[in-house]
Structure formats: structure tokens, C-alpha cells
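Side project, low priority. Logging it here so it doesn't get lost.
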Amino acid sequence: MRLSATEIRQQQFTMKRIRGFDPQEVDAFLEEVADDFEELTRENDLLKGQLATLEERSRGLEDRERTLQETLITTQKIAEEFKESAKREAQLVLREAQLKAEKMLEEARQEHAKLNAEIRALRQQRRQIAEELLAVVTMHKRLIEQGLAESGEK
């Protein structure tokens, strides 16, 4: 059972005449004890309030710390996922570029083969035209020579 300052002030003692205490000294002492007790009770209440406030702040800080930890872990996971995604995307882009390069190379080879075939055909055509032209020139030369030979005979 806890005593209050009021109970200390109202405490009464039985008086004995033989070797008893001076009632005024006892009352003064009880008043002093009650004042100290009252002050200690107020200080205790104040400290309890401060402790409750600090405990509440501590819980708030613990919650924040837990939230920050979870956020950090989530951020790390997202960063790893972004890295993996970027890596996969880079590999995909690289593969697409390789396929495109191979396609372009194949198209260039086909174009090269086509041009070579056209060059061969044009060379063949030039040779044929040159032979036909030579045949025409030769024929005209013979005709001219024949015409000259006939005109010289006359």
C-alpha cells in the first residue's frame, strides 16, 4: 500500500507521556516528509510521462527503421531486376543486330552475285556486238575493196 502526501500529513500518533516525542517536531517532520514525498511523486509522474514519450518515439523510430530496411531490400531487388532486365534487353538487341547484319550481308552477297552476273552478261553482249561490228566493218571493207577493184578495172 502506497502512502500519499495527504495521508502522511494526516497521520496521528498516540501520545504517551513518558518519554514521548515533541508533537510539534513530529508534525514539522511529517510536513517536511510529505513535501518531499509530494515533490518526488510529481518528479516520478513527470519522469513516467517522459519515459512514455521516449518509448513512443522509440517505437516510431523502430517502425521507421523497419520501413527503411524493407525499402532498402525492395530497392535492391528492383535494382537487380532492372539489371537483369537491361542485360536481357541488351542481349536481345545484340541478337537482333546480329540477325540484321547477317541478313544485310546475305542481301549484299546476293546483290554482288547479281551484279557479277550482269557484268558477265554485259561483257558477253559487248563481245558479241564487237564481233558483229567487226563482221560489218569487214564486210564493208570487202565491199569497198570490191567497189574499188571494179572501178579500177574500168
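Brief comment: Residues 23-153 form the longest helix (131 residues).
Revisit when time allows.
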